[in-house]
Amino acid sequence: MTLLTLRARKEFQAPVAERHLEAEVAHCVGGVISPLMSNVALSVLDEHFVKAPGGPQSTTKQRWTRRQKGLPNYRLIRYADDFVVLVSGTRAHTEALLPEVADVLSTVGLRLSEEKTLITHIDEGLDFLGWRIQRHRKRGTDRQYVYNYPAKKALRSIKAKTKTICRMNVSLPLAVLLHKLNQVLRGWTAYFRPGVSARAFQYLRMIVWRQVFGWLRRKHLGVGWKELRRRYCDGGWWPHDGEVVLFNPGSVVTTRYRPRGTTIPSPWPSTS
């Protein structure tokens, strides 16, 4: 299976090199209406793939017949202006799809971003919405499965956020630091919970623990580990301040949801 990652960019949206209020209001850069505008504009892409031969409206028999004839089948996965086209076929089929998608987007004044357009195989994997999606052989077996887990970029981002929080003023109580960290950690782990994320959660647990104790050692210069553990860990190793306990990412249990694809009802069904 070949995957095609595409991203559309508005030609009428000027690049904003720096934070400029007037430009952001005019072009909705980072605004709440920007995803809405993308969804409205890129609905032409949804309609195109719904009606295309080998698309989601094709029956199982029709897709099987196309495969027997060496023809590709398609699926479109989209979130705002980020989308992936999955192609069951050859790389040549995928490359032939590029100008077709570009023509569809040109009807609404959009164009493909060349630097963010990628053609890749499922075995090579791709990053999409913070996830790394790739097919691997299951350990101890000869069977292969598609796994989704936090991408390296997402891990670097959460590490940078927690590091920034742990650079806050050491004169503040530990409870203030823990409250800020817990909000970020709970949100990040909740997003990546439905995937193969247990190892990433354990890694983040170690990173955050080191950052918090680094903050405590800067707060209490000259105080040894034994005293810090007595004050903030009750003789253990997990920091807390009164009833405020540092959220443990490693304790989050991952869940695997079975994809339902087109069986999920849509409030706005496409008209044929």
In angstroms, what separates the terminal alpha carbons?
27 Å
Q: β content, as a range?
A: 15-25%
| Whole-number mean pLDDT | 84
Q: Give the low-confidence spans.
A: 5-19, 21-26
SSE pattern, N- to C-terminal: EHHHHEEHEEEEEHHHHEE
| Shape, per Cα inertia axes | elongated
Number of helices: 9
Question: How many beta-strand segments?
Answer: 10
Q: Helix/strand-derived class?
A: alpha+beta
Approximate helicity band: 40-55%
The radius of gyration over CA amounts to: 24 Å
Largest sheet: 5 strands, antiparallel
Describe this protein with a few key phrases.
272 residues; alpha+beta; five-stranded antiparallel beta sheet; 19% strand; elongated
Descriptive report:
There is one protein chain. By secondary structure, this protein is of the alpha+beta class. The protein contains nine helices and ten strands. It has helices at 21-27, 33-41, 43-51, 60-68, 91-106, 152-165, 174-191, 198-219, 225-232, and strands at 2-10, 73-79, 82-88, 110-112, 118-121, 126-128, 131-137, 144-150, 240-241, 244-245. Strands 1, 2, 3, 4 and 5 form a five-stranded antiparallel β-sheet that branches. Helix 6 (152-165) packs antiparallel against helix 7 (174-191). It is elongated. Mean pLDDT is 84; it is low at 5-19 and 21-26.
